[in-house]
Amino acid sequence: MTDNLFVLDTHILLWTLLDKSKLYKKEVEIIKNAQQNNKLIISSISLWEIAMLASKNKIRIYSKTEDFLKEITDIKGLNIHQIDYRVAAESVSLLEEFHGDPADRIITATTTGLSHFTTTNKNTIVNSG
User: Considering Cα of 113, then 14, then 52, then 62, what sign does the dihedral take?
Assistant: First the structure.
């Protein structure tokens, strides 16, 4: 699995940082392995989503929002994929049946063209590569 990139959904990132008990043991192992191999990815939209959740008191973080986000960007082995023209275009071309959450659309669009695994807030690992 180390040949694949591993894209984290925002909730899985938060659970990894704040409450690993919400993750399956296998998920923790996969995330750790991907991080050690510099193959762990989040979309930059996850940083925005975390800031929004914190501002609405939907999550409790252990420092100021800006400091918490900076700590995330400094995690060794975690790569932040920026929203570019391809991601933006792909996010609006997803099937109409795909729910309308813009952050989830962008996270899904981020994975287009990558050999990757994605984990979602439903504790589901999907091989999309």
Answer: negative
Composition of the chain by helix, strand, coil, percent to 5: 45, 15, 40
Predicted pLDDT at 118: 54
Q: Tell me whether residue 123 is in a domain.
A: no
CB atoms under 10 Å from CB of 127, counted, come to 10
Give the tens place of pLDDT for each residue, 35-76: 999 999 999 999 999 999 999 999 999 999 999 999 999 999
Domain that includes residue 33, residue range: 5-117
CA neighbor of 12 nearest in space, from 128, 126, 123, 129: 123
The single-letter code of the amino acid at 12 is I
